[in-house]
Amino acid sequence: MPPPLSATATRRRARAAARAFVGGALAVCLFGVLCTPAGAATGVAMSVSFQPDRLGASSALTVALRFAGSAGATPAPLSGADVHLPRGLGIDLRAAAVCAAARVRAGRCPRASLVGRGHAQLEVLAGSQTIPEQAVLSAYRGPARGGRPTLEILGVGSTPLSERTLNIGVLRPDSAPFGSVLAIAVAPIPTVVYEPDGSFDSLTLTIGGRGSAARILVPAHCPAGGFPFALDAAFSDGTSTRAGAGARCP
């Protein structure tokens, strides 16, 4: 049996382990794998793709997010999401009709206002049980706010709960290396009485493409390392985190 470590040696070993842990966690975050920074209870992973993936093309952009609570816990309810988009990326809404929020909630928007589709999986707490909820996402062009374009993202879930929530995103200029940011105010998702709001497990949204009145314009030039994307997520428990992703150059 090896001799017991001295207090000094124990402290040195603990510091080395801590440095290794922090370095490994940083590498995981940088490569877009699910990570939970210190002080945040919910981790987020982000991936992005273009279809077609061609410089200068009129394309569709898909953003996929995955959430996980620490130590296997339920993710905290999402309250805000800022999606940072690369410089030169265009979101062309000129062919899309404008639909007011009241008409979106009522399901009365013209097809010409539809700019994107997606889906989400959520967790709903009911007593000691966690029940999955599937939701269909539809994005419409909304009225401008302060001269800025907006997207109205309607989420409709039917099982086990019947819910309709509307989330408003405003497109604003952003600082380098990004060109714009879609700042989305995420509405609470009520569940059953005395239970917390619903939480996202995963979310995928595609803007542009077939059946959409919007066009995504891929930049004509790709920076070294690919196109940078990032997500700043805020949660109802007061925590926040950032996830990054890159789209490789075609």
Key descriptive features of the protein:
2 domains, globular, mainly beta, single chain, disordered N terminus, 250 residues, 13-stranded antiparallel β-sheet
Q: Secondary-structure map with pairings?
A:
Elements: H1 7-30, E1 42-51, E2 58-69, E3 78-86, E4 90-92, H2 101-106, E5 114-126, E6 129-145, E7 148-157, E8 163-173, E9 178-185, E10 199-207, E11 215-217, E12 227-235, E13 240-247
Antiparallel strand pairs: 1-2, 2-10, 2-11, 3-9, 3-12, 4-11, 5-6, 5-10, 6-7, 7-8, 8-9, 12-13
Structural category is: mainly beta
- State the helical fraction: 10-25%
SSE topology string: HEEEEHEEEEEEEEE
Mean pLDDT: 85
Largest sheet: 13 strands, antiparallel
Please explain how this structure is put together.
The protein folds into 2 domains: 1-31; 34-247. It is built from 2 helices and 13 strands. The protein has helices at residues 7-30, 101-106; strands spanning 42-51, 58-69, 78-86, 90-92, 114-126, 129-145, 148-157, 163-173, 178-185, 199-207, 215-217, 227-235, 240-247. Strand 7 (148-157) and strand 8 (163-173) form a beta hairpin.
Short overview:
The protein is mainly β.
